[in-house]
Amino acid sequence: AVRLRVREALGAREPADAVRVQGWVRSVRSQKEVLFLHINDGSSLESLQVVANPSLEKKDLTFGSAVEVQGKLVKSPHRMQNMELQAETIRVVGPCDIWSFPLKMKERHPLEYVRQFPHLRCRNNTLGALLRIRSEATAGIHSFFQDNGYVHIHTPIITSNDCEGAGELFQIEVSWAKESAQKTHFFNVPAFLTVSGQLHLEVMAGAFTHVFTFGPTFRAENSQSRRHLAEFYMVEAELSFTESLQDIMQVMEDLFKTVTSTVLSKCPHDVELFHKYIAPAQKSDITQKLFSSSCRISYGEAMEILKQAAQTFTFKPEWGCDLQTEHEKYLVKHCGEVPVFVVNYPYDLKPFYMRDNEDGPQHTVAAVDLLVPGVGELCGGSLREERLPFLESRLQRLGLTDAYQWYLDLRKFGSVPHGGFGMGFERYLQYILGVDNIKDVIPFPRFSHSCLL
After folding, report:
1. Quick one: average pLDDT of 18-27?
2. Do 182 and 326 fall into the same domain?
3. Same domain, yes or no, for 217 and 79?
């Protein structure tokens, strides 16, 4: 028998006499003259209907059990399904105790409920759809950059650099060092889990012009909110020979629109599940935003808009303060619920590597954030300071000259104007799917349950 995935069986154009399908039972319905099963193997949202003689029913053939079915693939008389499997044999590969199994047949479990079972929730329709969408979006991101001539770089996960300068780092400790009377570092210097691959990408941009990375990053923020994760994935890119923030913003926008179009075309049923049951208004919103024009305002203009707002904010908007989520969402609403680029942030608010605009008296850097409806900041980027004297002066004031001597070397040997940006992958998924809690767009919600995997 030819083995078929459920997706392949459902999409088959012609009947087949000998096929074998493996998966997990999603429903069992036994009648006097016929037995109906629906099985799913994760390859599609839709399950494959199996029609069998009641004599093939077994005691351990239950919801959740793993089965292997052999038989004939035939045209289905059901108008909602193209093909069905007429079973000749059914083998229960792995039984399932339905009384203790936390997921129940034909029950739509809330995301809050399945979050309690991080090791089992991938068998839920909603999380299965989410993981297929993640997979297609990941492939779409790689395709976008490869198609546009970017070189993919694997940046280090363990590093001594604090790219963001916020100090929210996970420090790495070695077990034998704890027991030793003499405290030593494994790498002779303190090492941390990375918060960004940007600085390493800048190294590579000095040789490859256009580079990107897509990997795990870590933030030790003291927050268990619906917006924060300790571990998440970041898409980052660096472009050499660019002197305009507009170039950076164009890549941000093209990336967002291209990947979203890919996801909508390749996972229509999975996305529809979210837009139907999780965020009903999101479908038309996403489709509209794909073709709408974005808005561009400066940080100074943003502050004036916020100060004149009738809304009372928890954090009072003042020049020199970072934009909070409530500010970002208001700005998007004020601009007509379209993506908003905010440019030219205060000099003292941003990290040392951002390019000085040399403007006064409101001293700013060439930085940009992309804000989107419902989420707030999705992407952040800037032109990088390529001028050696400016960079030396700032690092000296911050007391970082020795730590970043290698970074200064990049400006001594063939430095060019360049810039880049980063996009939080989980925030992107939150936006296109309309999911409120960011922990519902990751495979394992490690910190949402008392038992960590």
Report:
1. 96
2. yes
3. no
Is residue 115 in some structural domain?
Answer: no
Tokens (6 digits) for 254: 């093209």
pLDDT by residue (tens digit) across 225-271? Answer: 777 788 899 999 999 999 999 999 999 999 999 999 999 999 999 99
Residue 275 to residues 129, 180, 270: CA-CA distances in angstroms? 12, 55, 9
- The pLDDT of 136-164, averaged and rounded, is 91
C-alpha–C-alpha distance, residues 324 and 93, integer Å: 52
Domain that holds residue 244: 121-440
* Element containing residue 215 per DSSP (H, E): strand 210-218
Per-residue H/E/C for 307-336: HCCCCCCCCCCCCCCCCCHHHHHHHHHHCC
Contact 48, 71 (CB under 8 A): no
Compute CA distances 227 → 92, 223, 271, 292, 441, whole Å. Answer: 42, 9, 21, 26, 11
- Quick one: pLDDT band at residue 291, thresholds 50, 70, 90? low
Q: Which residue has the higher pLDDT, 284 or 154?
A: 154
The DSSP secondary structure of 47-76, one letter per residue, reads PEEEEE-GGG--TT--TT-EEEEEEEEEE-
Q: Are strands 364-372 and 376-384 parallel, antiparallel or unpaired?
A: antiparallel
- Rounded to 5 degrees, φ, ψ at 447 are -105, 20
- pLDDT at residue 165 greater than cutoff 60: no
Q: Give pLDDT, residue 452.
A: 46
Task: Return the H-helix or E-strand segment holding 365.
Answer: strand 364-372
Question: What is d(CA 171, CA 231) in angstroms, rounded to the nearest whole number?
Answer: 14
Residues 240 and 312 in one domain: yes
What is the dihedral sign for C-alpha 2, 49, 106, 267?
A: positive
Q: Give the per-residue pLDDT at 224.
A: 67
- pTM of the predicted protein model: 0.91
Q: Are residues 426 and 293 in the same domain?
A: yes
Q: Which of 101, 136, 155 is the last residue of a domain?
A: 101
